[in-house]
Amino acid sequence: MIIAALASAPGKAGISVIRLSGNDTIKTVKEYLSIEEKLHEIVYNKLYLTDFLNEGEFIDQVTVAFFKEGHSYTGEESAEIFCHGSPIIVRKILEALYLEKNIREAKPGEFTEKRFMNGKMDLVQAEAVIDLINSESDAAYISSTEQLKGGLSEELKKINAMLIELMSILELELDFADEDLDFTPNDEITGKIDIAVEVINKFIQGYQKGRIFRDGIKVALVGDVNVGKSSLMNAFLKSDRVIVTDIAGTTRDVIEEKIEVNGYLLRIFDTAGIRETEDIIENEGISRSRRIIEEADIVLHVIDSTDPSEDEYAGNVIKVYNKTDLEDVIIDENSVKISCKTGSGIEELKHKIVKNVIDEELTYRPYYISNVRHLNILKETVSQLEQAKMSIQQGQNNEVVIVDMRQALDTLGEITGETTSMDIINNIFGSFCIGK
Amino acid sequence: MIIAALASAPGKAGISVIRLSGNDTIKTVKEYLSIEEKLHEIVYNKLYLTDFLNEGEFIDQVTVAFFKEGHSYTGEESAEIFCHGSPIIVRKILEALYLEKNIREAKPGEFTEKRFMNGKMDLVQAEAVIDLINSESDAAYISSTEQLKGGLSEELKKINAMLIELMSILELELDFADEDLDFTPNDEITGKIDIAVEVINKFIQGYQKGRIFRDGIKVALVGDVNVGKSSLMNAFLKSDRVIVTDIAGTTRDVIEEKIEVNGYLLRIFDTAGIRETEDIIENEGISRSRRIIEEADIVLHVIDSTDPSEDEYAGNVIKVYNKTDLEDVIIDENSVKISCKTGSGIEELKHKIVKNVIDEELTYRPYYISNVRHLNILKETVSQLEQAKMSIQQGQNNEVVIVDMRQALDTLGEITGETTSMDIINNIFGSFCIGK
Q1: ipTM of the prediction greater than 0.90, yes or no
Q2: Residues of A (377-436) whose Cβ lies below 8 Å from B
Q3: Homologous superfamily of A2-106 in CATH?
Q4: Of A53, A258, A310, B320, which is the most buried if we count CB atoms within 10 A?
């Protein structure tokens, strides 16, 4: 079966790209082209200028390239059609192709899934493809690019090798259990398990930073009504995307805006002012605000310098004294003086937010895992390794320990795709866009 | 100077396309590629797999194709870069390129403008490119494709040839004015002018249909409040995109929805119910409705069959009796019985709309001009030809008539671009998208 889909973004443009992959792609696509006769000997990776015809009827002048099995993105015989960036032409070409018995619409992520299935990348790299496409900051770009290039896969291979070495020691001892050999002492084996756990824990701890690289820093703007939260949001954006008025309770829903600081994405949530109110909709906003504050990486407690609040917020809080053009205040190191009106202190505040949560420099480390799936698998692996260690300490025989170790290895293999169930694989690729 | 821009639609996708054109494109782009050394001898139209680097720093794995001067879209040396469809990667690649002294961002339509300037297509064909990209129906697609293939240009050449033949007769007579030759009788010349005018008028009259091919049929839904105009809109769309309520005056603004019937685009405008009201916003809606009705190709006067209105609307009107599931009515040939509730009569109504305005068959003719610029130029040409005819009839000498004829020829040449001012050309390409 050949799969086909629009691979460029939908919409009106100069060029659109339609991608096909599967056995007999070339033979099948050729029949739609006015230069069919010239194609008795295909030059791969060459752009052919040709008319695309549907049952002899002209659809568009296009360029077409063919890719050889084993030398394409998917690993299968493939083709790409470059047509005018007109949605109606894309529709006409795809409709013409789907009329073929052996061509069907590609499912989301199916081209990359084929690439994974054909062993041209592992699951971690495939996940990096979608992260790369979705990346909205330099940090997200760096993290997904490194992962795509195989940085994380290499690290995982090292952990895998450590566990396999442990397995082979245990299996060797099992094979020669009846003979009079010098067995590796138990505490040497548990020591090796500890080292593996330590390495894995470094990745688990790296998740916090990896998540920030990929998804950005969640910033909650909180404070009493009318202290200037929406004005601060506007000052961040240097625009007027948020409605600011003098009426208390204007911001009834949670508004999210994004800016980039030092390459990091800052996701700023302007929350409803928290106060007693009879307004049901506003109350709903306040309860959403509470959730936002709980999930935030950092809370900006905005305070009116002319009428400072005594409220305290829990968690990672920066006190932001606004209106300092009207009233000066004395601050500590967890506070910043700003004026949304004059713009003073805004840049300093942006950098303080980043410094507070992550190194200000954009220094990526291979153990900054960013995917919660990877995090959970690594946690599970650690717990299974600890189970193995406990079995040794309880004096269980090697068969039992080997079963524990095998489990840990299988769990670890779920990250790169070696032991991942088809359900999970489908789930991963299902989150891709169509045509990738 | 090399121009560069994103040529595929902006957004997250599998693939994005960046296009460059201008002298030294290949030499300049090569320096960004990891396979630079392998490119000492370029194979044109070949897709090279390579890393794209910015000052040695990896940006993305891309494919790149180079096009030879004279054999590219623009006619200049060109390149296309196919990268991951990630907006941040597109930004990084373009930013890296724009740092070059000899690369700048392309202006809207500039690639096609170069194609026109380099004589690879005329202005009529260039205008068809943007119409093709914007086309939203089969009719619009057919009209722009035919124009792009040169159908209209061919017809205009024929008219041009007729005028040139007339010119040569007049000039010949002028050259031999003193000699004793048999001059072409005046009424033979005015006869030839009449024929030319007749041909041009066929195109002028074709505009009405050409416009409908390109822009669709404007349908205005009118009638008293609560007769079911919004319900009819929903029935057309077979969805619930328009808010329908029982409160009179819900539809306060003009809502436009589009459907395709027999390949034609129907642009349906749901107008505010026209009635006396104190509501200022609603009154504004009503005055917009009046404008819509004036501009509509067809007016659907929706009538509640259980309480039929006596109102009459001027223009091309179909009376649409709704709620015929509740009350049957007797209708004439300009009326249709429907029920939005049961869906009966809706398909019949759609086809009646098309039949009423244009041939139901999607039969395109080369004289269906669709561009108001072309219409105005042709009207001007006719008026100048009539001026020439009048000069002849007034017994003016040939010099005067030749001036009139020359004007008509120059005016006609503005359509295809031969005599078009740079202002108008810039205006035309300025309406294109960037990257085309």
Answers
A1: no
A2: 433, 435-436
A3: Probable tRNA modification gtpase trme; domain 1 (3.30.1360.120)
A4: B320
